[in-house]
Amino acid sequence: MLSLSSSQPSTTTKSALVLHHNRHHGHPTLKIRAIDAAQPFDYETRISTRFIQSTKLKIAVIGFGNFGQFLSKTLVSQGHTVLAHSRSDYSAAAANLGVSFYLDPDDLCEEHPDVILLCTSILSTGSVLSSLPFQRLKRSTLFVDVLSVKEFARDLLIQSLPPDFDILCTHPMFGPESGKNGWKGLPFVYDRVRVGKEESRVLRCERFLEIFEKEGCRMVEMSCAEHDRHAAGSQFITHTMGRVLQKLGLEKTPISTKGYETLLDLVENTSSDSFDLYYGLFMYNKNAMEQLERLDLAFEELRKELFEILHRAVRSQLFGEAERGGREDERPAVREAPPNGRALPPPSETVGVENS
Fold it and tell me: Which pLDDT band, with edges at 50, 70 and 90, does 38 fall under?
C-alpha cells in the first residue's frame, strides 16, 4: 500500500519515493524519504527581506510621556524597531505599543540605536542629555529633537553632543490632540543642523524624514532661527490667547455661535498642554517677549478706540451740535502695532482726541 498524504504534491515539489518491504504483511510499501521542495524563503525572498530591513531604523525614544508614545505608535506601525527610556516606568504602555522599554539608559544605549529621538520637555532636555552615556552609542548616532523652540535646541545639542554625532532639529507642528485623526497636511519643520557626508549617514537622515512624509505631513525645511520667528507670532500667541480665555472660565451656552465654539476648542487644545510647555515657549524663544508687548499694545489701542467713541457720544449728548467738532460717523485714528521685527514705538497720548 502507498503511505502518501491525501493531497498531491505541487508541480514545484520533487519527491524521492522509496520502496520498503512490509514485514508483517509481505507487501511492498511506498514511503516518502525526502522532499526537495521550494522553500518559503528562497533567494528572491531573502533579498527582498534584506532590502526592507535596510530601510528600517532602530529608534530610541527618550522621554516616553504622551508625545513620545504618540510618535512611537506610528514608528512601530511603519515597521521600525522602537526602544524607549524615561524617568518614570512606562513598561506596560510600551509593551502595549510593541516598544522595548529600558529603565536604565546604559542598557538602552548598548542596543546601539540608529537614532536618538528626544521627546523631553523644553525645561528638562539639558539634564536628560547630561544623563545619557554617549560612550555606549555608535559614534555617528543621529540625534533628533522635537522641541517647540529650535534655536535653544540647536545650541544645546551642539554644545552637549560629541562632534561625531549627527543633529537633526525638527518640530512636528501637531500633537496627540490635533493629530489624532492622522497627520496628513500637518506641517513638519526640520533643519539638518549637522549631518555627516557619508552616504549611510545621509540616507539615515532621509529615512527618518520619510517617516513623516509617508504619513502625509507637509514637509517644511527651515532654519531654526526662522522657525522661532514664525513660532513666536503663531504658536506662542495661540497658547497665550488660549490661556487668557481659560482664565475667563468660558462655558458653552444654549446660543453659542460657531465662532464662540472655536474659542472653546482653542481653550481645550491649549489647556491640555502643561504650563511648562507654555513657559518654555516664552523663556527659550527670544521673540516671545516682543509678541507679548505687541499684544499689550493691541489691547491698549483697542480700548482707546472704544473709549474715544464713547467719549464722543457722551459729549454729543451733553453739549449738542456746537461741541461735536466733527461728523458723527467720524472714527478715531488708531495706531496699529508695527510689523514683526520692528521696534515698538513709545506709548503715545490718547489717539485721535478731537480739539474741544
Answer: low
Q: Report how far residue 28's alpha carbon sits from residue 31's, in angstroms, rounded to the nearest whole number.
A: 10
Overall average pLDDT of the 314-337 stretch: 65
The pairing of strands 81-85 and 100-102 is: parallel
With cell 534655536, the residue in question is: 151
Find where cell 508687548 sits.
293
Query: How would you classify residue 156: left for phi > 0, otherwise alpha for psi between -120 and 50, otherwise beta?
Result: alpha
Q: Is the pLDDT confidence value at 331 over 90? A: no
The average pLDDT across 124-134 equals 97
The DSSP call for residue 2 is: B
Q: Which residues pair with 85 in a beta bridge?
A: 62, 102
pTM attached to this predicted model:
0.69
Q: What is the pLDDT of residues 163-189, one digit of tens each?
A: 999 999 999 999 998 899 999 999 999
The CA–CA distances, whole Å, from 241 to 81, 135, 173, 230 equal: 39, 44, 18, 16
Domain boundary among 181, 204, 228: 228
Contact residues for 217 (Cβ-Cβ < 8 A; gap 6+): 172, 183, 184, 185, 186, 187, 188
Query: What pairing do the DSSP bridges indicate for beta strands 28-36 and 14-21?
Result: antiparallel
pLDDT score at 37: 52
Q: Which residue has the cell 516518502?
A: 32
* Containing structural domain, residue 333: 304-356
Query: Of 194, 196, 137, 187, which Cα lies nearest the Cα of 169?
Result: 194
Of the two residues 291 and 100, the one the predictor is more confident about is: 100
331: closest CA among 303, 312, 356?
A: 312
Residue 91 inside a domain? The answer is yes
Residues 153, 29 within the same domain: no
Q: How far apart are CA 50 and CA 69, in angstroms?
A: 28
